[in-house]
């Protein structure tokens, strides 16, 4: 039987994040001969997981068929804690066991899956920090920063923005402005300029992530694998050059791999993300755009669209230079996108959106008739 009261010095506790909370969740399974394991890699229905082995740990390959589900947000993911049955493993197929269940997740970073169906995809589970990697080899995309940070806040994790390839910005003043711009786009989020080539910012980031479970997020070419190697202190992840003609990287990392960091804690490196869609991230958006939300509370109308409505505090802030047009447009875009994805799975919200749309259409026709005068309105009613 597995003794789930592991010492603080045991590798599963010290390195992989096992604690009293997860031990409590595992209690119902402890008397059934199962063992806990942290999933370090997922590949086509099978997972690699680290499990306790005496005073150390070993990696096992386990089948996930027993936890198959039609909900893509509940499939095993890197970072999950799994309940493993090691007695039924098929050694001939190099399977050590099967996954019987997943322990409840503390956090889960979800995005809208890149399919035509309304599905969510889990990028990482049970992470405390999510490092959003944004390359300075190209123009700083603040819209992308806001998108990623919103999803991270929604997950329950703490976002950190890493401006990678900082050595390519020769002027320290310019670099300072870029850091400040990123900080303005992500209020309350730590922004670190890092360079794997020179080591700038790597120690700072290592200190932030020490002892925790973290994940690297970003598009291809953002330097995630290079940063993972710098944080690990060795070349554990394959790295390839970014294409010169368009600045895009190739998918060097093809699976989500969990790496143990020398300073304590683990880091999940993820494949580059070409697109990151919203997935029911209203709370995350509210936190990322706390400045816009605060202004909106001062608007004359509670359902103000922050367009041409009278008494709009948001538009007044834009006119006075207190809020940039870019940030307001980003806020609107992400809100619309998030509302669409939620509406696809929420019939009540779909009805509300349809009713609101009809009301706006009616208001638009009324305003147009007022501009044209009574004669035009009469002709419309009589069809002349």
Description:
The chain is α/β, with parallel strands linked by helices. The protein folds into 3 domains: 11-102, OB fold (Dihydrolipoamide Acetyltransferase, E2P) (Beta Barrel), CATH 2.40.50; 108-269, Rossmann fold, CATH 3.40.50; 282-374, Ribonucleotide Reductase Protein R1, domain 1 (Orthogonal Bundle), CATH 1.10.40. It is 36% helix and 20% strand. The chain is built from 12 helices and 13 strands. It has helices at 11-14, 20-30, 142-155, 172-185, 202-209, 224-232, 282-288, 290-296, 313-319, 325-345, 347-372, 374-382; strands spanning 35-43, 46-53, 56-63, 81-85, 97-102, 108-112, 120-125, 129-135, 158-164, 190-193, 213-217, 257-260, 266-269. The strands form 3 sheets. Strands 10-9-8-11-13-12 form a 6-stranded mixed beta sheet, sandwiched between helices. Strands 1-2-3-5-4 form a 5-stranded mixed β-barrel. A two-stranded antiparallel ribbon has the order 6-7. Strand 6 (108-112) and strand 7 form a beta hairpin. Helix 7 (282-288) crosses helix 8 (290-296). The longest helix is centred in the C-terminal third of the chain and has 26 residues, at 347-372. Residues 240-253 have low confidence and may be disordered.
């Amino acid at each position: 039987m597995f003794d789930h009261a592991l010492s603080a010095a045991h590798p599963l506790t010290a390195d992989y994040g096992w604690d009293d909370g997860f031990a409590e969740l595992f209690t119902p399974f402890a008397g059934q001969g199962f063992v806990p394991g942290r999933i370090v890699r997922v590949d086509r229905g099978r997972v690699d997981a680290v499990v306790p082995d005496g005073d150390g740990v070993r990696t096992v390959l386990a089948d996930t068929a027993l936890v198959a589900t039609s909900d893509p947000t509940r499939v095993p993911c890197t970072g999950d804690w799994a309940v493993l049955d090691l007695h039924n493993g098929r050694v001939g197929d190099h399977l050590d066991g099967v996954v019987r269940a997943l322990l409840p997740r503390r956090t889960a970073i979800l995005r809208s899956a890149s399919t035509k169906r309304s599905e969510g995809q889990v990028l990482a589970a049970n992470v405390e920090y999510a490092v959003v990697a944004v390359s300075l080899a190209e123009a700083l995309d603040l819209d992308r920063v806001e998108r990623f940070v919103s999803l991270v806040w929604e997950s329950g994790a703490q976002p950190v923005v890493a401006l990678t390839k900082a050595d390519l910005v020769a002027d320290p003043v310019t670099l300072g402005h870029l850091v400040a711009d990123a900080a303005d786009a992500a209020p309350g989020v730590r922004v670190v300029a890092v360079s794997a080539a020179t080591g700038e910012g790597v120690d700072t980031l290592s200190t932030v992530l020490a002892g925790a479970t973290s994940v690297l997020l970003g598009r291809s070419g953002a330097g995630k694998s290079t940063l993972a190697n710098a944080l690990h202190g060795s070349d554990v992840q394959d790295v390839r050059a970014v294409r010169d003609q368009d600045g895009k990287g190739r998918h060097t990392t093809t699976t989500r791999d969990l790496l143990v960091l020398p300073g304590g804690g683990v880091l999940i490196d993820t494949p580059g993300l070409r697109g990151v869609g919203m997935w029911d991230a209203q709370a995350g958006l509210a936190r990322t755009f706390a400045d816009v939300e605060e202004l909106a509370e001062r608007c004359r109308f509670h359902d103000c669209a922050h367009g041409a409505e009278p008494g709009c505090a948001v538009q007044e802030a834009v006119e006075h230079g207190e809020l940039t047009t870019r940030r307001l447009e980003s806020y609107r875009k992400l809100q619309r996108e998030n509302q669409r994805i939620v509406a696809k799975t929420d019939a009540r919200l779909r009805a509300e959106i349809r009713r609101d749309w009809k009301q706006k259409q009616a208001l638009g026709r009324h305003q147009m008739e007022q501009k044209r005068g009574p004669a035009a309105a009469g002709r419309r009613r009589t069809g002349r």
